[in-house]
Write a structure and sequence with these properties.
Length: 344
C-alpha cells in the first residue's frame, strides 16, 4: 500500500476496498451471517470509534472480534465484567517486588488493539468510568504515570438485553462516547444450519476453518489515515447537523408531537460520529467520497443510544428507533452530491 496523501485518489480508495474486502472474507470464513454487524465493526475500526453492542448470548459477538484481531494481526483481549471488578483489574496496578525492593507496574487487559468488554453493565460505575476514560483519552494513569494505549485501539462493549437484575446501566454521558450502538439479532434458519455444520463438522468431518492474516497494524493505521482523507461535501455535513439538531428541538424540524417524547437529544459527538462513520463506510465501498446513502445507513446506529426518552414515551412502548424514523422522514437526505468529483 502506498503512503496516504492529503487527497485520496480513486485508485487508493479501490486499493483500500480490496484490502477490507479480504479482511471481511477471512472473518466470514469463521462467522456466519451478521453482515450488518461485521460492517459496523469494520467502520468503527477504520473511523477509530468504539461500539456498544446489544444482543442475546451466543450470537458470535466474541468470536467476531477475536477473529478480526487474528486477521489484522492485532492483540485481542476480553474482560468479563462482574460486580466485584475494581479499576485496577482493568487498567493495571503497581506491585511490590520483594527481591528488588522496588515497585513495578503491571499493565491491565485494556492494553490491546481490540478489546471486548463483555456485559459492561454488570460492573459498578467506578469500573465503567475507568474503561470509558481509557476510550476517550487513549491512555491510562497508574500511580501518577501515564501509559499510552496501543494503536489502533477499538473497544467493543456488550450488553445483555434479557437479564437486567443486578446491573449498573451506563449513564447517558458515558454512553455518548460510543460511536455506534448496534443491535445484533438471531440468525436465520439457513444461517443457523450453516453454523451447525461448520462448528460440529456434521457433513465433512473437518475442523472449523481458521482465518488467515491479511493485514498488519501498520496497514490498518494507513487505512485509518485514508479514511480521514475521504471527501465529505458540506451539504452532507449540514444534513448531519440538521438531523442531530432535530433530536434536540423537534418542534423546529416540524415535529412538535415529539417534544413530549424526548427529554434530551443527541450531542455534537453524534454529528462527528455520523460524518466520520460515513467516511469509513464510503472507503469500505471503494469510494474516495461520501454519498447521502452512507449517512442514511448509519444514522440509526449513531443516534439510537444518544436519545433520552421521556417517561411518557416509555409508557407508550416507544423506542429510540421509532422516533429516529420519524425524524429522518422529516429531515430527508439531500439529493445526490455531484461536487465530489471536482473536490476529490
Amino acid at each position: 500500500m502506498s503512503a496516504p496523501s492529503q487527497n485520496l485518489t480513486p485508485a487508493d480508495a479501490a486499493q483500500a476496498a480490496r484490502l477490507t474486502e479480504q479482511m471481511l472474507y477471512e472473518v466470514k470464513r469463521v462467522v456466519v451471517g451478521q453482515d450488518r454487524f461485521l460492517e459496523r465493526v469494520m467502520v468503527a475500526l477504520l473511523a477509530q470509534g468504539h461500539l456498544l453492542v446489544e444482543g442475546a448470548p451466543g450470537l458470535a459477538k466474541t468470536l467476531t472480534v477475536k477473529t478480526l484481531a487474528q486477521v489484522v494481526q492485532g492483540q485481542f483481549k476480553r474482560i468479563q465484567f462482574t460486580p466485584d471488578l475494581v479499576p485496577a483489574d482493568l487498567i493495571g496496578t503497581r506491585i511490590y517486588n520483594q527481591k528488588t525492593g522496588e515497585f513495578g507496574t503491571v499493565l491491565g487487559p485494556v492494553f490491546a488493539n481490540l478489546l471486548l468488554a463483555d456485559e459492561i453493565n454488570r460492573a459498578p460505575a467506578k469500573v465503567q468510568s475507568a474503561l470509558l476514560e481509557a476510550m476517550q483519552e487513549r491512555q491510562v494513569t497508574i500511580a501518577g504515570e501515564s501509559h499510552r494505549l496501543p494503536s489502533p485501539y477499538v473497544v467493543m462493549a456488550t450488553q445483555n438485553p434479557i437479564e437486567t437484575e443486578g446491573t449498573y446501566p451506563l449513564p447517558e454521558a458515558q454512553v455518548d462516547r460510543f460511536m455506534f450502538k448496534v443491535l445484533v439479532d438471531y440468525p436465520s434458519e439457513e444461517e443457523e444450519f450453516v453454523i451447525a455444520q461448520r462448528v460440529t463438522g456434521a457433513v465433512s468431518g473437518e475442523a472449523p476453518a481458521q482465518p488467515a492474516a491479511v493485514a498488519d497494524s501498520a496497514q490498518l493505521v494507513r487505512l485509518q489515515a485514508w479514511c480521514r482523507a475521504v471527501y465529505v461535501d458540506p451539504v452532507l455535513v449540514q444534513y448531519a447537523v440538521r438531523l442531530v439538531a432535530a433530536t434536540r428541538e423537534p418542534k423546529r424540524a416540524g415535529l412538535p408531537e415529539l417534544e413530549r417524547l424526548l427529554s434530551f437529544g443527541a450531542s455534537p459527538r453524534a454529528t462527528l460520529s455520523l460524518v466520520e462513520g460515513a467516511r469509513a463506510l464510503a472507503l469500505l465501498r471503494g469510494r474516495n467520497y461520501a454519498l447521502p446513502e452512507d449517512f442514511g445507513d448509519l444514522a440509526a446506529d449513531v443516534l439510537r443510544h444518544r436519545l433520552v426518552l421521556s417517561y411518557e414515551a416509555l409508557s407508550e412502548g416507544l423506542d429510540s428507533d421509532a422516533l429516529i424514523g420519524q425524524i429522518m422522514s422529516r429531515v430527508p437526505l439531500p439529493a445526490k452530491v455531484v461536487a465530489h468529483d471536482k473536490a476529490a
